Amino acid sequence: LKREQVDDDNKKEYCATQFDTSDDSKKALERKISDHENAIATAKEAIATLSDEIAALEKGIKNLDKSVAEATEQRKAENSEFKELMASDTAAKEVLEFAKNRLNKFYNPKMYKAPPKRELS
Question: CA-CA distance, 57 to 60, in Å (whole number)?
Answer without folding.
Answer: 5
